[in-house]
Amino acid sequence: MQLSNKVIVVTGGGRGLGRAYCEAIAKQGASVVAADIRDTNATVDAVTSAGGQAIGLDLDVTDMESCQAMADAAVATFGRIDCLVNNAALYGDIDGGRFNQIPETQWDRVMNVNIKGIWQCCKACVPAIQHAGGGSVINISSLAATYGMPYALDYAMSKAAVIGMTRSLARELGRNWIRVNAVAPSAVLTEGTSEYMGEKRDKALEVIAKNQSLQANLETDDLVGTIIFLASDASKFITGQTIMVDGGTTFL
């Protein structure tokens, strides 16, 4: 198995893509830390029922003490951290709108979770990854950052910042043999996508698929192979990259 003996932290692991990542990497032999502000019991139960190892931890990525407590608990339980998947983000629970009508409170919340949250999780977990001899940080960005997403300037801006953070961290942490990459998916069929798009969901997904070279909407399982690859030693000389998993919508 590609991830045997690795310990991988997945933020936002309570549902959707985060849960899919947890289940998939556990099947590859990793011990999983599902961390979320939401309940993670269903994720942990799914992993352990399939014979994997997992713990669920409460995590508020906007609170540095919470991030550090999560990292400390992961090390206390499994002895190390080899990979951090920064998946937690505000998406389904924000309102779209014209750029000049986005509430300032929402703008600040999006930046606080989607950008500062990744920075704080890195601050908490990278020392343990370095102590383990190196490893991988995987930041989840979005097609919104590279293609442009109207009526969601706050979200698109935050995900563009994730790519910039990824590139800078890759240069800074390479000397410690810590790889830092971003994954930028198109819209994926998750609870968050349904919540964000609301009654326009089916039409929006149809339009998105038609703009892709591979004309089908992404399922959660379509992302997990990329996560497994970036978490594994198979990607040991890949860093600073943004991998588009978007059916061929944009070419970097």
Q: Report the β-strand fraction as a percent range.
A: 15-25%
Count the domains: 1
- Give the fraction of residues assigned to helices: 40-55%
CATH topology heading: Rossmann fold
Structural overview:
This protein is α/β, with parallel strands linked by helices. It has one domain (7-245): Rossmann fold, CATH 3.40.50.720. The chain is 47% helix and 15% strand. The chain contains nine helices and seven strands, in the order βαβαβαβαβααβαααβ. It has a seven-stranded parallel β-sheet with strand order 3-2-1-4-5-6-7, with helices on both faces. Helix 1 runs parallel beside helix 2 (41-49) and helix 3 (64-78) packs parallel to helix 4. The longest helix has 28 residues, at 104-131.
Summary?
This protein is an alpha/beta fold. It has helices spanning 16-27, 41-49, 64-78, 104-131, 143-147, 153-173, 191-197, 201-210, 221-231, and strands at residues 7-11, 31-36, 53-58, 83-86, 135-140, 178-185, 242-245.
Mind sketching the topology for me?
Blueprint: E1 7-11, H1 16-27, E2 31-36, H2 41-49, E3 53-58, H3 64-78, E4 83-86, H4 104-131, E5 135-140, H5 143-147, H6 153-173, E6 178-185, H7 191-197, H8 201-210, H9 221-231, E7 242-245
Helix pairs in contact: 1-2, 1-9, 3-4, 4-6
